[in-house]
Design a protein that fits this description.
By secondary structure, the protein is of the alpha/beta class. The protein has a 6-stranded mixed β-sheet, sandwiched between helices. It has one domain. The two termini are 23 Å apart. The mean pLDDT is 92. Helices cover 50% and strands 12% of the residues.
Length: 259
């Protein structure tokens, strides 16, 4: 599973509406799919639309793309290329084989509800996301590992310790032996954005649209404003979200609003 975040981990009474929510978005897929399909096709797309120095790889980052920074400046002036690139990525999102889950926490509600004891928001989201991935692995008779983008030494250290604790002690809903039987390591993998990891880039490209789609599902907003974001959400909702295998229900399985 590759994880990306939307928002920040801060929790305080003075949070603005823009800071109120934190999302952890997970993409899980197979090793063969990454090696044989996602990574080579992503590299081919980069070469087609953003050719350059092979020693300086292009790394997909949603903010850089939408703000036309770095190698993506060409998209600002060339609207036809921008449209072709957007359509090509939508085709990839639709055709690549993967599952996703979006876990969002309302930090102000969390702060209000739990006056004495409370989870750190980031680690609470990680626990809930990990439960869904492990259950998917369990019912599919699979094993896997977890990778997330590195932030800074202090936060990374806390994340490593949190993941180890979950691995050794289990979660509130899953026993440790279930996690240990389906996770290949007690260590969470941490990689910088510059490492050019295809799975982390895919999570980054999808997470923002998934976050606003969740807010719309829970009635917090009417709909996300971006038409392109809505098109991504349609793809995720149609076939990509983790869901109850018997009912097809996504809310609670692929989408969860905390607390």
């Amino acid at each position: 599973m590759y994880i990306d975040e939307v928002g920040n981990h801060d929790i305080k009474k003075t949070l603005s509406e823009n800071e109120r929510y934190l999302t952890l978005f997970g993409v899980w897929t197979s090793y063969d799919q990454v090696v044989n399909i996602i990574q080579p096709e992503m590299n081919a797309i980069k070469q087609e639309f953003f050719p350059g120095d092979p020693d300086i790889p292009v790394v997909f980052h949603r903010k850089d793309i939408t703000r036309f920074r770095g190698p993506f400046t060409v998209l600002y002036s060339d609207k036809k290329k921008r449209t072709r690139f957007g359509d090509r990525m939508l085709k990839a999102y639709r055709e690549w084989e993967y599952k996703v889950a979006t876990i969002t926490i309302d930090k102000l509600e969390h702060l209000s509800r739990y006056q004495v004891w409370r989870h750190a928001p980031y680690h609470y989201c990680l626990e809930v996301l990990l439960e869904r991935c492990v259950l998917y692995l369990h019912y599919s008779d699979l094993r896997g590992d977890v990778m997330i983008e590195s932030r800074n030494p202090t936060l990374d250290g806390k994340l490593v310790n949190s993941f180890r604790r979950l691995y050794h002690e289990g979660t509130r809903h899953l026993p440790a032996d279930l996690l240990q039987s389906h996770l290949t390591s007690k260590e969470i993998k941490l990689k910088k954005k510059s490492a050019n990891i295809a799975g982390l880039q895919l999570a980054d490209l999808l997470a923002h649209s998934a976050f606003y789609d969740l807010l719309a599902d829970y009635g917090i907003i009417q709909a996300q404003k971006s038409e392109y974001g809505r098109r991504i959400a349609e793809i995720l909702n149609s076939t990509k979200y983790n869901r109850d295998v018997s009912t097809g229900r996504i809310v609670g399985y692929g989408k969860k609003l905390l607390p």
